[in-house]
Design brief:
The protein is 31% helix and 19% strand. The chain has 23 helices and 26 strands. The structure holds alpha-D-glucopyranose (GLC). Alpha-D-glucopyranose binds next to loops.
């Protein structure tokens, strides 16, 4: 090949592969910078502190932290937000010798200025488009406020609603959780990091934090490697495959070793098998917590174990700050481990463009413009509408007639605003929030009486408000009760041993129901609750989770029929806490209950049915849907082939509606037992009355595979059942195929 041709070929190749060219350039820039860095400056990049102490009045500030920043001993700050503060703190960092900019991070979990439904609620929408839009708005608002990095999506699969952090994830199912993980990462980050309206995302908490023993936060996790890989890791892998910039490890142990010091998780799996190139931040103080765990005898050993296990950045432990230089200088830790961590972190700072313009995300004009954009309220309202789940609707009690003359609004959450923002909210600005009372007021003319009685508190023993509530009910055409948890009864460190409706709320319901009036119950919570009396006796039940700013409007839209509810449960609702862990993809056992009446010597309880109060995938509509004409493109599948299936979905009711059709499989016999059902695809379809649509699904070999220890993901020949349904316990179509 002549020289000119070969030179131009190289030129063409390097400029036509932007990803490769960019990576090569950034790698070169990282190499050049690292050659200049002292060990102290390298360790500095691995330290992250909370920013509460470096902003605000001078008297409140921790000067040692400001000095560390000025001397290049801090790589990132969390909890510093707003253009003014981020500019100020960044300017201090740029006084350091090498002027390495800081990363500003924050828990933007379900919105920044505009508060969206909590993640568990959004997961109930099964609507990947609105979930992406929600993350994009959060990224746009927070990026305009100087934030580079959010500690979201939380992708922990959770089967235990005693655990308060179920509110933060996507529920119990691995497939749904993986789809949502990927969607949220792309929503926050965009296709390529560096845009001024996108931020780094963080897949957390690695790994299996949702399996904390007894649903108690910060507790051990002891599960098999098979369950780890099959149930808990796929959403993390989906996030990694979507390019998530960072991972955060978890407070729990995995089989006796704290995650932050667990080389199997962080080196073998994440950075090894998955070849992950981003960086891992420890969860708040998790490195130093290895001492109370009884794993590290002191901070020095904790720092050593953490860096060797692949924890790149130390959030708030000060373990790396205090111990890492000595560990390297004493030969206990090879410099290569520090260099690897520094490289991963600097790479992201270059990728964001912070070396080219450290203030790129701190633009006052953009901040002012973005923060008050009304279009984000519309997106928040749509997300809220789509997240609402209609659990029960006897005798078409809902939607409420617009001709009603007197509606009694009863319960401690009728006027709730802050509660609707849920946990993990950045600005609890109630001025932007809409209560159910306010939402309904907009729906009814002035001459319709909306009477209000609180009846009782959320979690108190008071019943002296009952008579007023009962009286309001007696004088009304219909009663709408708004009950549930307060915002701070779920979230981090909010595990509950009793997940019944708190206080006297169910007693209040009984008193109101005794009036004989139709009673609609709206439930707000950050988790599945137990409410058996209401489930049995209410005429209609709407699960509203915590829906954010627009909750009151969205709930009112559903109550009066201006929006036809389309949500489906992403997590099973137990009949009682004794059934936990309860999930739809259970194993059949050798003694399955085939007839509820026959539980003698069967895998059953003598005091409760096995099935949940409300099943995974359950959610009603104001219309009805018919499922017909299931077709499989082949009855026998060769190994490595995909199966294509189709069916016809029809809106057989009188109003427009959205249906979430779910595809489940059951691998009937395998070398390790398989769940009776596994979600493998879903689609949310909007249909007019009488309208039909042919839905196509595909079962790829990956969807038929299962994980075996020491073997990994494989398929095995055998008989598979396919099921298509409107809920995991409401299958409409079934078929079978053989896999060779
Ligand atoms: C908390 C949480 C984690 C959060 C971090 C920073 O303890 O476990 O999810 O991102 O600290 O606030």
């Amino acid at each position: 090949m002549n020289r000119i041709f070969s030179f131009s070929l190289v030129l063409v190749v390097s400029f036509t592969l932007p990803g490769y060219a960019q990576r090569k350039t950034i790698d070169q820039r990282v190499d050049s910078l690292m050659k200049l860095m002292t060990l102290a400056e390298k360790v500095g990049q691995l330290n992250q502190y909370s920013g509460r102490e470096v902003t605000g009045p001078a008297s409140d500030r921790k000067n040692y932290l400001l000095n560390d920043i000025k001397n290049g001993k801090v790589g990132s700050m969390l909890n510093v937000k707003g253009v003014k503060d981020t500019r100020e703190i960044q300017s201090i960092a740029l006084q350091s010798r090498l002027k390495i900019p800081l990363l500003f991070s924050l828990d933007v979990i379900h919105g920044y200025k505009t508060v969206f439904p909590i993640p568990l609620a959004e997961s109930a929408s099964w609507d990947l488009d609105i979930i992406k839009q929600s993350a994009q708005v959060a990224a746009t608002e927070s990026a305009a406020s100087g934030i580079h990095w959010t500690f979201a999506p939380m992708v922990d699969i959770a089967r235990d609603p005693r655990w308060g952090r179920v509110m933060e994830g996507a529920g119990e199912d691995t497939y749904l959780g993986a789809q949502i993980a990927k969607t949220r990462v792309l929503g926050f980050q965009g296709e390529q990091l560096g845009a001024v309206d996108r931020i780094m995302a963080c897949a957390k908490h690695f790994a299996a934090y949702g399996a904390s023993m007894a649903g108690r936060d910060y507790n051990p996790v002891d599960i098999s490697e098979q369950q780890l890989h099959e149930i808990y890791l796929p959403p993390f892998k989906a996030a990694a495959d979507a390019g998530v910039a960072t991972f955060m490890n978890s407070f729990n142990t995995f089989n006796g070793i704290p995650a932050t010091g667990n080389a199997y998780l962080q080196r073998d799996i994440l950075k090894g098998q998955w070849n992950y190139k981003g960086f891992v931040v420890s969860d708040w103080g998790s490195i130093k917590e290895m001492t109370p765990w009884g794993f590290a005898k002191n901070l020095n050993y904790a720092a050593e174990k953490a860096i060797l296990a692949g924890s790149d950045m130390d959030m708030e432990s000060e373990a790396y700050k205090k111990e890492l230089e000595n560990l390297v200088n004493n030969g206990k830790v090879d410099l290569k481990y520090v260099d690897e961590a520094v490289r991963r972190i600097l790479y992201k700072k270059f990728e964001l463009g912070l070396f080219d313009n450290p203030y790129k995300f701190s633009d006052e004009k953009r901040e002012a413009k973005v923060m008050n954009d009304p279009k984000y309220k519309d997106i928040a309202k749509l997300a809220a509408q789509k997240s609402i789940v209609l659990l029960k609707n006897d005798n078409a009690t809902l939607p409420l007639s617009k001709g009603l003359k007197n509606i009694a609004l009863i319960g401690p959450l009728v006027n709730a605003k802050r509660d609707q923002a849920g946990s993990w909210v950045v600005y609890a600005d109630t001025a932007n929030m809409v209560s159910v009372y306010e939402g309904l007021q907009k729906k009814y003319a002035k001459n319709v009486k909306l009477s209000y009685a609180q009846g009782t508190g959320i979690d108190d023993a008071l019943t002296n408000g009952f008579p007023e509530a009962v009286n309001a009910a007696k004088n009304a055409d219909v009663v709408v009760m708004v009950l549930g948890e307060s915002w701070d009864m779920s979230g981090e460190a909010k595990s509950r041993t009793d997940i019944c409706l708190p206080g006297q709320q169910e007693a209040l319901f009984k008193a109101v129901k005794a009036t004989g009036k139709p009673v609609v119950v709206v439930l707000m919570a950050g988790r599945p609750l137990v409410f058996n009396t209401i489930a049995a006796q209410a005429d209609a039940i709407v699960y509203a989770w915590f829906l954010g700013d627009q909750g009151g409007n969205a709930i009112a839209d559903v109550l009066v029929g201006d929006y036809n509810p389309s949500g489906k449960l992403p997590i099973s609702f137990p009949r009682n806490v004794g059934q936990i862990p309860i999930f739809y993809n259970y194993y059949n056992t050798g003694r399955p209950v085939t007839k509820p009446s026959d539980i003698r010597y069967k895998s059953a309880y003598i005091d409760s049915p096995n099935d949940p109060r409300f099943a995974f995938g359950h959610g009603l509509s104001y219309t009805t849907f018919a499922y017909n004409d299931l077709k499989l493109d082949q009855a026998t599948l060769q190994k490595g082939q995909s199966l294509k299936l189709s069916f016809k979905l029809t809106n057989t009711g009188k109003v427009v509606g959205e249906e979430v059709a779910q595809l489940y499989i059951h691998d009937q016999f395998a070398s390790i037992v398989r769940p009776v059902k596994e979600l493998k695809d879903f689609v949310k379809v909007k249909l007019k009355p009488g309208e039909s649509k042919v839905i196509n699904f595909e079962l790829t070999p990956e969807k038929l595979a299962f994980y075996q220890e020491k073997i990994g993901w494989t398929t095995e020949p055998g008989t598979f059942k396919v099921m298509i349904g409107t809920a995991s316990n409401d299958i409409k179509l079934e078929g079978n195929f053989e896999l060779k």
